[in-house]
Amino acid sequence: LGNPSILAMSSLGKIGRFGNQLMQYFFLRACAGRSGASIQCPDWLGRRLFGLNDAPVTARLTPAIERWEEGNNMFDEFPAFIKYIEKVAGAPSVRIGVEALKEGALDVDLYGHFQYHPRHYRPFRDSLRAWVQPVPGIKADLETGLAKLRGLGRTVVAIHIRQGDFKKLPHFGFTLCVPPRWWCDWLDGIWNQLDRPVLFLSSDDLDFF
Predict the structure, then answer these.
(1) Which helix (H) or strand (E) holds 20?
(2) Which residues is 109 bridged to in the sheet?
């Protein structure tokens, strides 16, 4: 029968924070589902939060570097990063893009953020939600907090504003620190249209506001 097909992401948990890791896992899982491959990935926060028990990385596979639909991404801007990945893998890399969400991918090790336009993930919407259901102990605490929040209003408007390292990283589009005034102007424009809104603000630098 031959060796079973594998799709790995040995870099999961190493490129970006938790939000990035979610998108990376979604891409890994969606592509593996399309191609019927088994998943291998390292320990990451999703294991403890969502009870995900994918196999650890044991295979050494061809690195597949993210390719954007348009323009350059981190790997294009820093080609030395690709050379480093190839050196660690001991093999030349290939490029992989959003088409893998339709075609699948086999026997490669994925590297990238994979934050493609949400329309590409729409066919997987129900699956994505199912994959990230908190484990019972954590879910109970979250539901308690959410109930308190909903007790203050009907429509929850949640904004996550990342500052911290974005002030120090190179100024690519994804490291833009949006001025607080922009958020305030946007909220002023929609607030009165919402049914009893309540604002939930999350940031790594709340004192900035």
Answers:
(1) helix 18-35
(2) 8, 63
Is residue 80 within a helix (H) or strand (E), and if so which, with residue range? helix 79-89
Global pTM?
0.85
Residue 22: C-alpha distances to residues 31, 59, 82, 205 (Å): 14, 22, 22, 22
Token pair belonging to 22:
């979610």
Task: Assign 169 to helix, strand or coil.
Answer: coil
Kindly give the confidence (pLDDT) of every residue in the chain, 209 residues in length, as a single tens digit, with 9 standing for 90 and above. Answer: 445 799 999 999 999 889 899 999 999 999 999 999 999 999 999 999 999 999 999 988 999 999 998 888 989 989 999 999 999 999 999 999 999 999 999 999 999 999 999 999 999 999 999 999 999 989 999 999 999 999 999 999 999 887 777 777 665 556 677 888 899 999 999 999 999 999 999 888 777 66
Q: Name which of 21, 29, 40 is nearest 107 in CA terms.
A: 40
